[in-house]
Specification:
Elements (H helix, E strand, L loop, with lengths): L10 H21 L5 H12 L5 H8 L3 H13 L3 E5 L7 E5 L1 H22 L4 H17 L9
Antiparallel strand pairs: 1-2
Length: 150
């Protein structure tokens, strides 16, 4: 019988275990604000670059235009994002946070900060910096640019 490596022999196994735990806890936290992780990611991206065309936001986040459109529609329905029609082209529009949406960003960001502190606070500063550096190097070398939303 040939031997097979164990699940726990793989770095990916450990990364997924930690990633799932961090993501699930953050999803629980933002759900208390009636927001999903995908909606938070969308709002945070928009916060820095508003007003923004949906196509530009899709490119920035590494998502399809259809996915951006669905997220925008959900956030418009919640009163957190607004669509502004172009004066030059009635078919085009840009997206902006509403006053309420903009006010929610610091609250949601503090939940993200809290979630990071809870999970990674068990590491020393040096360990945390090393982990961040290694993950950023992996992302850069693998050309991972899409915003993780699930």
């Amino acid at each position: 019988m040939t031997s097979a490596s164990r699940l726990t022999d793989h770095t990916g196994y450990w990364m997924r275990m930690v990633s799932n735990a961090v993501s699930q806890e953050f999803a629980r936290k933002v759900s208390g604000e009636d927001i999903t992780v995908a909606e938070w990611s969308f709002m945070r991206a928009l916060y820095d670059f508003e007003p923004t065309a949906p196509s530009a936001l899709a490119e920035q986040m590494g998502m399809t235009k259809g996915a951006i459109s669905k997220l925008a529609d959900r956030l418009v329905a919640k009163g957190l994002v607004e669509k502004v029609e172009s004066r030059e082209d009635q078919r085009a529009h840009s997206l902006s946070l509403t006053r309420e949406g903009r006010a929610r960003i610091p609250v949601l960001a503090s939940l993200a900060d809290q979630n990071d502190a809870e999970f990674f606070g068990v590491l020393t500063n040096e360990e945390h910096e090393t982990l961040d550096r290694i993950l950023r190097v992996l992302a850069a070398r693998r050309e991972l640019n899409a915003t993780p939303v699930d």
